[in-house]
Amino acid sequence: LRFAEPPVGRRRFRPPEPLKECPRCGGPSEDTVYRATAGHGACLQPSLAAVVSRANLRLTPMQAAALVITPIAALGFLLLLWHNLAPSGWGRRRRGSRRTRSAPTEEDLQEHVELLGGSGAAGGAPRELGSVEGPSGPRPGPLLGQVLSSKACTLACRLLGSFCLLVVVLGLFTLFLHREALQTTVGAEDCLFASVYAPREALQRKGPSALAPLPVIVFLHGGALVMGSGADSGVAATYGPPLGLVETGRAVVVHVNYRLGALGFFSLTENETGQPLFGVGSTNLGLRDQLEALRWVQENIQAFGGDPSRVTLMGQGSGGTAVQALLASPLARGLFHRAVSMSGSPKIDATLAEASVQWSASGFLDDLTRSCPGGTALKNSSELRDCLLTLRGEDFVTLLPEQVTPSWLYDAPSAWMQEDKIHLVTVDGDVIPRNVSAALGAPDLIGVLPNVPVMLATTQEEFDSSYDEAKELQPYDHNSVLEWAEALVDSWVFGESLYYLYPVDGSDPPRRRWSQLVADLRLTCGNRFHARQLSRSQPLQTFVYELTHGVANPPAKLSGVSAYLSSFSATYAFQGWDTVLLFNSTGLLDYTLQHDDLVVGDRLRSAVLSFAETGVVADWLPFHQHEAVCDVGSRRRGGGALKPGDCRPDPWRTEACALLEEYGISRRYWAVD
What we know:
This protein is of the alpha/beta class. It is built from 19 helices and 21 strands. It has helices spanning 61-85, 106-116, 200-203, 243-246, 261-265, 285-300, 318-327, 352-361, 364-369, 381-390, 393-398, 436-439, 478-489, 492-501, 510-537, 562-565, 577-583, 595-614, 651-662, and strands spanning 19-21, 33-37, 40-43, 48-52, 131-134, 137-140, 166-169, 172-173, 184-186, 194-199, 214-220, 252-256, 306-316, 338-342, 454-459, 542-547, 556-558, 569-570, 589-590, 628-632, 647-649. Strands 4-10-12-11-13-14-15-16-20-21 form a 10-stranded mixed β-sheet, with helices on both faces. A 3-stranded antiparallel β-sheet has the order 1-2-3, with no helix packed on it. Helix 14 packs antiparallel against helix 19 (651-662).
């Protein structure tokens, strides 16, 4: 699979296999649908079935040991410090005092095993870590869930395929700054797996009660194109399972993996010819993986009760970026019929040659080739090709340069920003023929590109969760805005105009205004521009929504070990919050959804499902009608209770985007990847 377009020799996504009934484990869900995959399977709630194309998380023994031993050792060290340094009585249980927490019950053990993704036989015997026989030979067995209660049995584990190679630190996949703590990779290059979620009734399509085929939603995960996966549990899972969508009985949902980082988006050209180093079909490999997944859906989704003529391509974050890229790809025409981009980055304009220069200037190539014969002094493209094909896949992950995910990625822009960012998605002339912003809605590409109904979405405070680590415009006030504007464009008039639009007051404290300004500059204005472009060719088929409902019971933080590695904290409508509400799953968040969250989630879910079914949303106005933006929030902009059709022009945002464009900083600082 290294630097090659799928499929390679055989289909990467296999056809579906027959369903079996769930084995009796003595638990509460004995009538659950069971999915067999090469002798393994997954049992879910009675109303759902998770379908996977292949099984098992792949870790080497050393990687597994690192992931297990390191957090235990760290915890032991902290406990030792606490025991020896804490003042008398602190953190120590007094002799004879009662424990505040009782011993775990059988239900607690059951829940713990399920959360780990463990699996075992009815008698509780753990599966051995090793290899199991499958259709294509032996492969690693499950890693997690090795310790099971003799009375507990897992009913809800989901055995997903290996996800694409990425770095984890104590179980958290992170950006560049965290890699030095523990360079442990998980996943594998052989990672093109799909996970299909369908209502049970859709799978039992026999007899007079059989349902009509359901619309299909293919979801692309986010993660800056260097992290995340299509898994719904485990170290690389971001969102959790899309149960909120599937439990409605209105859609079949497909999660897919695609290659990440340098293995998915390495752009390098031959010095001699300027052509891609690995030939035609070797560029934008992550996007090509997504296209292959869409082809698999077209050929196989009917077996799960899905309608191949109603496929919605949906993505969040960099998954939303990929959606916008494929909207500008002739290769995607006919593979999906609606598109939803949530917080997608609008700047996709770097050519293959420009990206090749960026990769070379980063020093990444020198780091990779040191171990090859000839080292960094390889003489020609042929020698370089041979070298890159012999390296370990992990090398492409652990040596990934900081310029792929620089520290300022989620900050307000500064004068030096954007200059050293490596563009991962490129205008390669094949998957993406031209600058995406120019291609969308271009008259000469009508009938060439997908030309499908589109929903573009942003959240009102996209970068709220980055506020605590931000360096620019801090602290946010009148003076800092003036200083920032003068440094950026040498104009205090621009600063005054900007603060007039984003002032701090009682209802809008500094955190909220900073988050709104950065969101507009980096994401929202670019997405509104794309909506304008699309409306030129499909005025009745382009919709825009903005999530204005923030965290009902702030703050929302990361859970478990992840919380110790990141200052992530969200108060308002942060990036990814709409996916949490849509899936009705908090994923990595240590947060319990409140009543208002659930109400807004229901409204958003209904709109997305209606769009997937018909390509329109009842009571929603298309963007071309006075640039109407549909407010997905718990309160209307004008006050009063929320109404289903709360779509209206957004003059404040239009003025703000026009101001940023006037001073030439809007498109320059749009988010990338």
